[in-house]
Amino acid sequence: MELYKHTALEIRDMVLDKKVSSTDVVKDTFKRIDSVEPKIKAYLTLCKETALAQAGKIDEKIRKGEKIGQLAGIPIAIKDNISTQGIKTTCASKILSNFTPPYDAYVIKRIKEEDGIIIGKTNLDEFAMGSSCENSAFGPTHNPHDLSRVPGGSSGGSAAAIASDMAFISLGSDTGGSIRQPAALCGVVGLKPTYGAVSRYGLVAFASSLDQIGPITKDVRDAALMMNVIAGYDPQDSTSVKEFNSSKVEWFKRLEDGVKGLKIGIPKEYFAEGIDKDISKSVYQSIGLLEKLGAKTIDISLPHTEYGIATYYIIAPSEASSNLARYDGVHYGYRTTDYTDLMSMYHKSRSEGFGPEVKRRIMLGTFALSSGYYDAYYLRALKVRRLIKNDFDEAFKKADVILSPTSPIPAFKMGEKLDDPLQMYLCDVMTVSANLAGIPGISIPSGFTKSKLPVGLQILGKPFEEETILRVARTFERETDYHKTKPVI
To answer: Taking the model in full, what pTM does it have?
Structure first.
């Protein structure tokens, strides 16, 4: 039946109209997974039996005429750093390889309440630390558009699963671009919400002041659908913003309003040297299209952009070194079998349990927080973070949204940057500032390079104005068909 080719909203409507059953949708999705997953390797865990059982319950509710949720019958993939009761949550790390959470994250609870069907957990860079999905303890994920290339990271499994039609919606987490960058490299839609708009309860912490959960989807309408479900206040997350009542956000009503009269800021710092020529050309063409549709573009400056990577790679590792201290072989996770005393048990458990990139970031963070260096590195980074936030505040006095490339380069060859961490970190140069400032951003497909690799257009918005960036994204998507171009696997 090839149901897997449809969008999530199309599938939901077909299920509600009784044109197909939820069970048929799940069976067709797993048939697709059986066909292409051996080449892509997007999943770490599959939940076929529980997914079919859940689909049967939804079909029964529809037969009885009971109330059905917004995600009725939609197969959904979850990044494997989000807690799922009864399903392993490994963070793609050996140290959590046997961890099964006893509770659901807030977003998982909401998905279940709205009759979504969880079909599996997706691969990622270990503890979400990476830009290529190669840092997984269980092997890399491949880009569906070119199997010799990376899907981006850290939510590479979630993006690849959507690009290859192995799920209709997936969840990722974004600490420095980990939803938007893989979405761009895989040619799908990825939305990072405002910090505080979506509860982090149940998300395994990497850098707590930067982490956010968000959707990766086939089109913009599906992203709005998922935000309608997962956004909102949660008292279990102390950083969840009570004043942001998602029920008042008109996620769909303004989606088709167009961009006439909107002011789009073009930051000169995001079009400097180092941007791939095909990407730069594609983004400028996208800006031209939005101008034709009635938007007004203005030149803006975000002068502290050049300090974004350095600031991020002090703050994020510092928070990681603290958050990951709990994995010591006693409180959580893997414990070595070969030790002589308590200290050697700590040492060997962490040495054997963590991969190289996680160890690198723990050491960087521990150094930045150490006595005598705190003021020189961490405190100074926090001050620069404020300057970056001030840049955006000033820019949004003139512009309603800001446009830029999502990634400076298209998907690169597997292994190409593994031995050069600095080059890998520079992949995040377009995305980290939004996390430091706490603002929302979305990446949408905006073209292809001469090598037929996807290009992503990033749209950044004011805090808690996700509906505006979704509206701009939907306007662009309505006039183009880049999001409909499927990889040949």
So the answer is: 0.97
